[in-house]
Amino acid sequence: MSSMTDIIFLLLIFFMLTSTLVSPNALKLLLPSSSSQTRAKSNISVAIDKAMKYYFGSDAVSLEELRSRIQSTAGSEEDPTIVLNVEKSVPIENVVQVMNIGNELRVKMILATNPKK
Question: 79 in the Ramachandran plot: left (φ > 0), alpha (ψ -120 to 50) or beta?
Fold first, then answer.
C-alpha cells in the first residue's frame, strides 16, 4: 500500500510541475476598471458600433483595411497604444477580431469603458 501511495504522489508532483509550464494562448490587454482611469499617449482610436461598422479614428473602414491602417500608424510610433471603443451590444467575436490584429502587430490595446456612476 505504501508503494501505491508513493506512485500517486509522484504522479501528482509530475502533473503539478508540467501544468505550470504550459502557458495559455491569451491576449495581453490593458483592461481598465470602471472606477479608475488608464492613461496612455494614444493617437490611435478604433471603434465598433452596433451596426458592426469599424472606425479608424473617424473614418469608416473594413476589417481588412483596419489591419493595414493600424500597421502603418503603429509602425511610425514608438510603443503604440490603441484605444478600443465598443458598444455594449457588439458580440465579443468582433471585439476579439480587432484584438487579434493588435496582438499580431504587437500593439497594446486599452478597452475603453464608461465610468461607474
Answer: left
H/E stretch holding 108: strand 108-111
pTM: predicted TM-score of the whole model, two decimal places: 0.61
Q: Which CATH class is domain 27-111?
A: alpha beta
In total, the chain counts a number of residues equal to: 117
DSSP SS3 for 62? coil
All residues at 6 or more sequence positions from 2 whose CB lies less than 8 Å from its CB, including other chains: none
pLDDT grade, residue 29 (50/70/90)? very low
Domain definitions of the chain by residue range = 27-111
114 grid coordinates = 464608461
